[in-house]
Structure formats: structure tokens, C-alpha cells
């Protein structure tokens, strides 16, 4: 890891730069899925405890983001889509980002334990460790399976939310985990198809770099097929129902069709139209996950009514 810190004459850090260290876009997904996991759990949670639980899970997600940006500052400086992040742009000192990440990690875990329960707090601590150390330090730079195994970190939040309410794990929370876990590879590989040069320049062994685009296309389609049964299975549990099942069947049909279109794409045609299909499937993947968790919420509200 290169030490890319603030230098003499660099622009002074603003509050928004420290917010950017927390990866707010990623945090929004963490907050939403954790909230859904807590909300649909079969245990009534006081609204204040629920609010505090989601807040501290969000801070834990932000801590992971700050630690990731601290360690990855060298490759962020090389990649076009990340080179304006606060550390490589010289607006925030690397040591300040490290301190922020560690402080938020400790604070979020302790406060979640006090607000909800210590099982959920330990789960949050493990998630932060998994993302910051197992994924960022080890997997990301060493294997093309980085996003597959590392995707577990992004799949834990609904399980943590569920644990805040119930103090444990269930088939429902495991299937929410599986939904995000198996969604992550085709989501990021679709992005990697039209961002390959970034990962190549940064020497990150993304599947597109190590095995090429044709192999990546086959993997994307295969994962959409693996994902569908887990997504639909969730609808057959206590948190599911006809609304969720209907939405899941439609969304998975669309995602599988998108994966099939990517699989059948000729690389010359993809280059010629600027990877238009791949970009559309990437956007579809964002809606796919969001709408699945929205459907869980709607199903829960209708069921309660």
C-alpha cells in the first residue's frame, strides 16, 4: 500500500470529504437492507431501539468504507473512477482516514451492543473485519474470486438487522444473505466488463483481467441462474408472500434475460456500441436488489394490515 497523504499546498479537507470516506452510496444499501432485516423480523422492536440499531450498523458500514479507502489509496489513485476520492486527491491525510475508521468501528460495535444485543454487535465487528481485512487487504489483490468471497461483507447487514431484533440467525436471514451474496458477482462483473482498463491499470485481479471478458460473460449468466432459486425461496418463508413472490419471479426473469444477452454478446459489437447492453444490465442489477427488499417491506406491511 502506498502512503498517499496530504501534501503541502493540497486543498484543505472539508466536512464532505470525511463523509465521502464513509462511502455513503454503499452505506445507503447497508442501511436499507439492515432496516428491512430488522423490520420483517417476527419480534417487535421499540422504534427508538430500531433507529439506534440501524444508525450504529450504518456507522459500522462507514467505518469499513474509511478503512477500505485508507488501504486502497494507491490503487484508487490509478483508477479513473476513484482517483478523485479524498485521499488520492490529497484532500484528506491517510492517517486521518485510518483513525476515523478505527474510531467509528469501535464506537459502532460498542453502541450496537448496548442498544440491541451483543450477538448483533459481535456480528457487526466480524463484518467490519471481513470487509476491511479479509476482502480489502487479502482477497481484492490476490484472487479473481475477490468479489465472490468478499461479497459476503455486503450481504451481512440484513442478518445483523435480524439479529438486532431476534438475537440470532434463521433461515429467513440466511436467505436474505444469499440474495445479496449471489447477486454481488454478476452486479460487479457487469460493471467490470466496461471498466476493465481501470482494474488492469491498478493491477486488481478482477475476472475480466485474469480470464478475459468471454469467461466473465459466462460467469455472469451462471450466477443469475444460481441466484434465482434463493431469491424465490425467500418468498416461501415466513417473511414472504404473493407480493414478494410475484416481484421476485419477474425480477429474476429480467435478470436472467440480461445475463443471457451478455453471454451472447459479440465483443466487437459490445465495443462498437460502447457496452450499452452491459451498462443496462448493470443498472438493472441495482434495481433488482432494491426492489426485492422493497417487496419484502410491502409484503410485511400488507401482512400486518
Cα-atom radius of gyration: 20 Å
**Biggest sheet, open or closed, and with what strands and sense?**
none
Number of strands: 0
Give the fraction of residues assigned to helices.
over 70%
For the record, give the distance between the C-alpha atoms at the N and C termini, rounded to a whole number. Answer: 53 Å
Helix and strand succession?
HHHHHHHHHHHHHHHH
Q: In terms of structural class, how would the helical and strand content be classed?
A: mainly alpha
Q: What percent strand?
A: under 5%
**Shape category:** flat
Summed up, the domain count is 2
Mean pLDDT: 92
Instruction: Please tally the helical runs, counting DSSP H or I stretches of 4 or more residues.
Output: 16
Going by CATH, the homologous superfamily of the largest domain would be UbiA prenyltransferase
CATH topology of the largest domain: Tetracycline Repressor, domain 2
Unreliable stretches, pLDDT < 50, 5 or more residues?
1-9
CATH architect. name of the largest domain: Orthogonal Bundle
Q: Which class of the largest domain in CATH terms? A: Mainly Alpha
Function: Converts heme B (protoheme IX) to heme O by substitution of the vinyl group on carbon 2 of heme B porphyrin ring with a hydroxyethyl farnesyl side group.
Subunit structure: Interacts with CtaA.
Family: Belongs to the UbiA prenyltransferase family. Protoheme IX farnesyltransferase subfamily.
GO molecular function: protoheme IX farnesyltransferase activity
Amino acid at each position: 500500500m502506498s502512503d498517499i497523504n496530504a501534501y503541502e499546498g493540497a486543498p484543505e479537507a472539508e466536512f464532505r470529504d470525511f463523509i465521502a470516506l464513509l462511502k455513503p452510496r454503499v452505506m445507503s444499501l447497508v442501511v436499507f437492507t439492515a432496516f428491512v432485516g430488522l423490520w420483517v423480523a417476527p419480534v417487535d422492536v421499540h422504534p427508538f431501539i430500531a433507529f439506534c440499531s440501524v444508525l450504529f450498523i450504518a456507522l459500522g458500514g462507514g467505518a469499513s468504507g474509511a478503512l477500505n479507502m485508507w488501504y486502497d489509496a494507491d490503487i484508487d489513485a490509478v483508477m479513473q473512477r476513484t482517483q478523485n476520492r479524498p485521499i488520492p486527491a490529497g484532500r484528506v491525510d491517510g492517517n486521518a482516514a485510518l483513525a476515523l475508521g478505527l474510531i467509528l468501528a469501535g464506537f459502532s460495535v460498542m453502541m450496537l451492543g448496548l442498544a440491541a444485543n451483543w450477538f448483533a454487535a459481535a456480528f457487526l465487528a466480524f463484518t467490519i473485519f471481513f470487509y476491511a481485512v479479509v476482502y480489502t487487504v487479502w482477497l481484492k489483490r490476490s484472487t479473481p474470486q475477490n468479489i465472490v468471497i468478499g461479497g459476503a461483507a455486503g450481504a451481512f447487514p440484513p442478518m445483523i438487522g435480524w439479529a438486532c431484533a431476534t438475537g440470532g440467525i434463521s433461515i429467513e436471514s440466511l436467505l436474505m444473505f444469499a440474495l445479496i451474496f449471489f447477486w454481488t458477482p454478476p452486479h460487479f462483473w457487469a460493471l467490470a466488463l466496461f471498466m476493465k482498463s481501470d482494474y488492469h491499470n491498478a493491477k486488481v485481479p478482477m475476472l475480466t483481467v485474469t480470464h478475459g471478458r468471454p469467461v466473465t460473460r459466462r460467469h455472469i449468466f451462471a450466477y443469475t441462474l444460481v441466484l434465482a432459486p434463493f431469491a424465490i425461496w425467500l418468498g416461501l418463508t415466513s417473511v414472504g408472500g404473493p407480493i414478494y413472490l410475484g416481484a421476485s419471479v419477474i425480477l429474476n426473469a429480467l435478470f436472467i434475460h440480461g445475463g443471457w444477452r451478455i453471454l451472447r454478446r459479440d465483443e466487437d459489437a459490445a465495443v462498437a456500441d460502447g457496452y450499452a447492453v452491459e451498462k443496462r444490465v448493470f443498472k438493472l442489477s441495482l434495481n433488482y436488489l432494491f426492489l426485492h427488499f422493497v417487496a419484502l417491506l410491502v409484503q410485511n406491511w400488507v401482512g400486518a394490515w
